[in-house]
Write a structure and sequence with these properties.
Helix content is about 35%, strand content about 30%. The protein is of the alpha/beta class. It has a domain at about 5-10 and about 55-200 and about 290-325: Rossmann fold, CATH 3.40.50.
Length: about 325
């Protein structure tokens, strides 16, 4: 049987823009000023992130792919019939996992969730050549995707949720616990979660990964301001902000910021915002927490999962953990 593809219900453009405007207003009026990292991933941001994943200073993706290819048969056994990938990106990881699982598997229903329509299109193209799969795309947040997946709990076979790329590191501890709880609620007992998590490594390596010499990560970060200008009628001057990556050792996280290079007045019409940024003032755009393997096990167990296996890429310090919902 050949693959089939269908598009799920996308968030309406009007609703997405309204939520974007509300979040920009709420977060930019906090102290320190912030912007939610999920808005980094419009179509251009997603393409820039795919470029980051190819940089020699950003080894996370290559390490994760090595683990997926080495352990695909253990992860995707014959009992799994339905998968959901939260933040599917280009689809290269899911494609590698299915290929590594080899023959003998059942028909697979694939649910791809991403905020970028372009990324979903690319992922669908990467996967549509696979035999015996059905692809459904969901343009929206993780929460949107989980809500739809929760409705499909009465299917034959086990379901597997994928949360890869160390996206778990973008949540602060309370948010991480809440998110893992929502994943658990979407699964039946006996279903699985595959979690990718970046591990602690030397500070110099971490900073190079998030502030590369070619400036791709800087472009990715500043693109968020360009998106606000385009979609919400903002007036950010991109050359007035510098990308800055910091290692917060006390919190075990990399922080990405945009630093104002001069005093400037910011106006964002659709968010009803008008404020002044001082020279040196920063907008915090992303956090990326780093873990040790035992921390990953512990946070899954607190969220009603039982760890079945954990594989570690020792060269680039990355962990894949397979856990069963209990």
């Amino acid at each position: 049987m050949t693959s089939t593809a269908m598009t799920g219900h996308a968030t309406t453009a009007e609703g997405s823009r309204s939520r974007f405007a509300n979040d920009v207003r709420d977060f930019l009026t906090q102290h320190p000023r912030q912007l939610p990292s999920r808005y980094l991933y419009d179509d251009l941001g997603s393409a820039l992130f795919e470029a980051i994943c190819r940089l020699p200073w950003y080894p996370l993706t290559r390490a994760e792919l090595r683990l997926l290819k080495s352990h695909g048969r253990e992860i995707l056994d014959a009992g799994v019939t339905t998968l959901i990938e939260l933040g599917s990106g280009s689809g290269v990881k899911l494609s590698a996992l299915i290929a590594a699982a080899g023959t003998g598997r059942r028909h697979l229903d694939l649910h791809l969730v991403d905020v970028s329509k372009g990324a979903l299109t690319q992922a669908s193209r990467a996967l549509e050549g696979l035999e015996d799969v059905r692809i459904e795309t969901h343009e929206g947040t993780y929460e949107d995707g989980l809500a739809g997946f929760r409705l499909a709990r009465h299917v034959a076979g086990r379901r597997l949720a994928l949360f890869l790329g160390s996206n778990i590191g973008n949540f602060d501890p309370p948010g991480r616990e809440a998110f893992l709880g929502s994943v658990r609620q979407a699964l039946n007992p006996g279903d699985d979660l595959l979690l990718g998590a970046d591990l602690l490594k030397p500070e110099r390596e971490l900073l190079l990964a998030y502030d590369d010499p070619l400036g791709v990560t800087a472009a990715f970060n500043r693109n968020l301001l360009a998106r606000i200008n385009r979609e919400l009628e903002g007036n950010f001057e991109l050359d007035g902000f510098a990308h800055r990556a910091l290692w917060n050792e006390a919190r075990s996280r990399i922080e990405m910021h945009l630093r104002s290079l001069r005093r400037q007045r910011i106006q964002i019409r659709e968010a009803d915002l008008d404020f002044v940024m001082a020279e040196g003032e920063m907008i915090w755009t992303e956090s990326s927490y780093k873990y040790d393997p035992a921390q990953v096990v512990s946070m899954l167990e607190r969220s009603s999962f039982r760890v079945r296996a954990q594989w570690i890429d020792t060269a680039d310090r990355f962990a894949l953990t397979l856990a069963e919902a209990i």
